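Input record, target 12 of the design panel.
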């Protein structure tokens, strides 16, 4: 997709590059492309058209840059598991299980990006046959089910049960529920 946008910006004709008439971008290596761009940036004229081309290119680069925080440890472990579960297909359980919904995957990834690594230390991620994800605590009798727009959780501490059913999903509400379960010693 990015190459198509780049093609629109830099190509004058189908056969030559806008700036220098060299071979099309689809046949250039990354090194050749970088070399050509550096050369053209040095030669840029002080006119509005050239500056606009450069600004558009810089904007595309920054829009495509990955500025998310780097995940480590437990969050990375769950991220990798989420990625693996996103590849499940219909009938993955040998019966009629649905694949994990795309929005559920995105919700989980957003939670992992915003949470702290130690929030996820005690949790294991499982697919559910209805297309949702199930987080289960390894040391507590607790679980959280994450869907497209809602999540539910339950935690048993002694004779007390802490539960939330069909809670509207937001990253902050999910993390608050997770933290409250984690703090239930």
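The sequence produced for target 12 reads:
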């Amino acid at each position: 997709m990015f190459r198509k946008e780049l093609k629109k910006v830099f190509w004058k004709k189908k056969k030559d590059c806008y700036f220098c008439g060299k071979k099309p971008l689809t046949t250039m290596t990354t090194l050749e492309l970088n070399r050509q761009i550096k050369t053209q940036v040095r030669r840029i004229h002080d006119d509005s058209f050239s500056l606009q081309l450069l600004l558009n290119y810089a904007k595309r680069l920054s829009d495509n840059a990955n500025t998310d925080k780097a995940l480590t440890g437990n969050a990375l472990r769950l991220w990798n598991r989420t990625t693996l579960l996103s590849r499940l297909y219909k009938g993955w359980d040998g019966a009629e299980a649905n694949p994990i919904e795309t929005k559920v995957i995105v919700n989980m990834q957003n939670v992992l990006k915003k949470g702290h690594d130690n929030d996820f230390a005690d949790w294991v991620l499982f697919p559910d046959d209805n297309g949702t994800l199930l987080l289960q605590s390894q040391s507590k009798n607790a679980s959280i089910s994450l869907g497209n727009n809602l999540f539910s959780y339950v935690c048993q501490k002694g004779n007390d049960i802490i539960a939330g059913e069909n809670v509207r999903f937001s990253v902050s509400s999910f993390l608050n529920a997770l933290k409250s379960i984690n703090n239930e010693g």
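The chain has two domains: 2-64, 73-182.
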